[in-house]
Amino acid sequence: MNKDSTRYANAALALRIGLGLVFVIGGLSKLSLLLSSSKQAAMVANYMGTTGYINELFQDFLFSNGVLSPWFFLTSLSTFELVSGIALIAGFMVRPLALFYGLLLWTFVFSLPVDTVPGASVGVKTYTSPAMFVQVRDITLSGMMFVLFNLGAGARSLDLRRGQGSGNAAPNWDMLGLLLRFSLGVTFIIGGFFGAYAKIPSFATYQIILALIGLVLIFGQGTSLKVAAGAVVLVMAWYMLQKLNLDKGVIANLNGVKREFALAAAGLVLMRLGGGDLFTLSDCVRRTKETLGIQTSPSAVGHQSKP
């Protein structure tokens, strides 16, 4: 395995572990409540209530036929979440799981109950920020899943041992780096500009810092991009320390920061591999000049000079 292949394989390993931890922790946390006779009713009510995660449209679609109960649905989904998290960390069936979750994570955005009508109130406590802003970390996780799908299972994976860990061709990191830095950057952009609103993650960090990190992630390259990626890791570590509560158990503490493990993993990958050169600030300026005819690309000049 050459040096570049090793770097991409290690990047896939980092993403697998970060994403896998999200689902292992989330699955354990939910199952510990759903399988408890004294806590399962409150857990179901939490998910089905006005500040839960399943709006009326999805509740009617899923449960109105009387066949599927909310408890069975949540328990089955949580079990699959735990099993698939373990599989991701072990590197088993990584590409099918990455594709499945890359699409599934968007359903959490669509199903969130929100009230954003100007001047209106439904009279109950619910989410009052746009669902995409509240669930922006899941949007980031979705982008990470698609990056992982293209990278393959990577190093130390069961798929690699079975000969299914990665494709034969080297990945186009310009494209994957663009997807990864945009996916990560959008969480920091939303936190930076809208973190003062309800239920939008701000990571216990000044909004101006989040906004700057997000802008550099999206438009930066080279050293500036890697510095911003390092800042992501530091912000995640700081947030985890701020969320630590010694009155809670280990699983409850980890559940409060489960997505941050994945965000930190994305930051580490960008620190190591960079984010490519596509649609960085310099690339956008160059493309704008070419479009306006201010600058002609070398490739175009070469093409015109051919007989």
Describe what is shown at a glance.
68% of the residues lie in helices and 0% in strands.
Could you characterize what this model shows?
The chain is mostly helical. It contains 15 helices and no strands. Helix 1 packs antiparallel against helix 4 (70-90), helix 7 packs across helix 13 (258-273) and helix 11 packs antiparallel against helix 13. The chain is globular, with a radius of gyration of 22 Å.
Radius of gyration, rounded? 22 Å
* Continuous helix count: 15
The outline comes out as globular
Number of strands: 0
Name the descriptors.
68% helix; 307 residues
Helix/strand layout:
Elements: H1 3-34, H2 40-48, H3 56-63, H4 70-90, H5 94-111, H6 131-134, H7 136-151, H8 158-161, H9 173-194, H10 207-219, H11 222-243, H12 250-255, H13 258-273, H14 281-291, H15 298-305
Helix pairs in contact: 1-4, 1-7, 1-13, 5-7, 7-9, 7-13, 9-10, 9-13, 10-11, 11-13
